[in-house]
Amino acid sequence: MNDAQPLQSYDDTSEPDKGPARLADLRAAMAAQGLDGLLVPRTDEHQSEYLPAYAERVAWLTGFTGSNAFVLVLPSEARVFTDGRYTLQVRAQTVQPDFTPDDMVENPIAAYLDGLDLAEKTIGYDPWLHTINGFKRFKKAAEKAGATLIPTPTNLIDTIWADRPGRPAEPIVVHPLEFAGQPFAEKIADIAQTVKDKRANAVVLTQADGAAWLFNLRGNDVPQKPMFLAFAIVSDDGGAQLFVDPGKLTSEAHEHLQDVTIADIADFPAALQALGKAKATVMVDPANVSVKIADTITEAGGSLVEATDPIEAPRARKNAVEQTGARAAHVRDGAAVTRFLAWFDKEAPKGNLDEIQAAEKLLACRRETNQLKDISFPTISGSGANGAIVHYRVTHATNAPIEQNSLYLVDSGAQYLDGTTDITRTLLVGDPLEEHKRPYTLVLKGHIALATARFPRGTTGAHLDVLARQFLWANGLDYAHGTGHGVGSYLGVHEGLARIAKQGSVPLEPGMLLSNEPGYYKEGAFGIRLENLVFVTEPQDIGGDQPMMGFETITRAPFERRLVDVDLMSDAELNWLNSFHATVLADIGPLLSGDDLAFLEAACAPIR
User: Fold this and answer.
1) What are phi and psi of 364, to 5 degrees?
2) Mean predicted lDDT score pLDDT of the chain
3) I want to staple 142 with a disulfide (CB 3.0 to 4.6 A). Which of 147, 263, 443, 564 is the partner?
4) In CATH, 16-160 is 1.25.40.10
5) How far is CA 92 from CA 55, 62, 95, 127, 365, in A?
6) CB-based burial of residue 412 (10 Å sphere; 0-12 exposed, 13-18 middle, 19+ buried)?
7) Does 97 sit behind a cis peptide bond, omega within 30 degrees of 0 on the bond before it?
8) Residue 348's pLDDT band (boundaries 50, 70, 90)?
């Protein structure tokens, strides 16, 4: 990595002022197609959360740049649905009343749609951008409203987006076995066995990070996510086809894939038709395979078996090598973050820092590891009221000074060959106020409650989510985001299968890497979030009737002790905090020296 290479842009790419005119052009294109409405999800044909520039259709149309959105365009309204993370951002980045912000959790899109009177109306959709499950919900809702859903032959936004970026052409490289931990041939054999078990002839794999994991390859098609755009088909006999731009594969990658059939991504639809014509039974995940893929197979004569993507579970359960790598990455990253914390502690009280300067210093500290490949997402660097914007992204236009007697929230992460990190700390500048200390301590208590939880097999994230919220709830407070998400191994910082959230329905399993990040946000004032990453541990005998799993915290950086209200903490909670800090000191202390080490020693000193 070139040290001069910018890893985060502070330019404001949102263009809300252009939204009304673009919306008018889109409605004209809809009318030309005989459509009364259009469904516009923020995704691509791989159902990705993080998108290449060419697929940022919602941002281009509306101005909203958040990672979760869905736009329903009708002749009289254009409703932009998002979640609680973006309540403030969506209002700021769209022009009202041309666009109407809405909450997709409190007012689900399908529920809103089926409450409308759309008798004899036609609603268009791009079949590449809707999953089998998602389309079923929308079809049912549209029919209840009296409308008919019509697939468009091409994406209508693409027809009016004159300067739309092209597809990325970044090189695809081999991810060495010393970091992957398992040869890709073994992974393919495991997938093939799953296909047999489902009595299918093949499985279609559509997720970009899934292809990267399966073939032990990495790319750079999506900013900060070392993945590449590809589809794959694995047969029950162990044969594998990878559909990708062949010109992106390095010579080493070509040699690595010598037993894999490589085809151009443009040939993927023809391969689906071939499966159908062969009367194949094809395994698809209805949660992430598009309607277009399903229809192409069945219309050509094939049949479908719906099942969870067979990559998701083994990818989520990190193998021994990936676990060892993640721990090493977090020690390295924790030392870098602590160097930043020491610098911030010294410089912030002088009153000369702003959000961009802080974010750049944190990046500089990570560069000093000489192992940084990229950041894992744009650093959330929020001072005061900006910290209350859950997924705030600082720009030159919003860059705020870091003021005295205020809170500063920094959520950041790094990509190393041996692991992906994600850490949030809330820092104090000046003297703590009671309105800061109390919610900070309540968030910390929830963080500790989750970190110390013991639970049996079969426990889901939804079962545990309340543990992190209980102290906030008892004081009439809450936060509008999940408590934990999956994290990849030098892959996406947000990874499926399991999560710790009210909707987290997948049982947790040993080896899963998740975040633990409760928070509290006071609009217009400050934000608090405390995030560590944790591994789900193997079941252990703790003296009862059955063994229990738990969490191993692997993040290594201190919390802000000056914001802890000791009177609100139990002895057990203080013991956990002191033990965590002792571990942090022991693990990263040897990597620090001078003022940085002195800061760490003070930050990790026992509390009471």
Assistant:
1) -60, -40
2) 96
3) 147
4) no
5) 22, 11, 8, 30, 32
6) buried
7) yes
8) very high
- Exposure of 348 in the CB half-sphere (CA atoms within 13 A): 26
CB 571 within 8 A of CB 345: no
The ranges of the chain annotated as CATH 3.40.350.10 are 16-160, 173-315
CB-based contact 30:117 (threshold 8 Å) = no
Work out whether strand 70-73 and strand 148-151 pair parallel, antiparallel, or are unpaired. Answer: unpaired
Q: Are strands 202-205 and 173-174 parallel, antiparallel or unpaired?
A: unpaired
How far apart, in whole angstroms, are the C-alpha atoms of residue 40 and residue 99?
A: 13
Beta bridge partners of 249: 172
Considering only the top CATH level, what class is 317-599?
alpha beta
The CATH fold assigned to 173-315 is: Creatine Amidinohydrolase; Chain A, domain 1 (3.40.350)
Statement: residue 1 has pLDDT above 50? no
- pLDDT tens-place string over residues 426-445: 999 999 999 999 999 999 99
Is pLDDT above 50 for 388?
A: yes
Q: Mind listing the pLDDT tens digit for each residue in 530-582? A: 999 999 999 999 999 999 999 999 999 999 999 999 999 999 999 999 999 99
pLDDT value of position 6 = 78
Neighbour-count burial of 330, counting CB atoms closer than 10 A to its CB (0-12 exposed, 13-18 middle, 19+ buried): buried
Contact (Cβ atoms closer than 8 angstroms) between residue 378 and residue 336: no
Residues sharing a CB contact under 8 Å with residue 367, sequence separation 6 or more, in sequence order: 1, 3
In 3-state terms, what secondary structure has residue 553?
strand
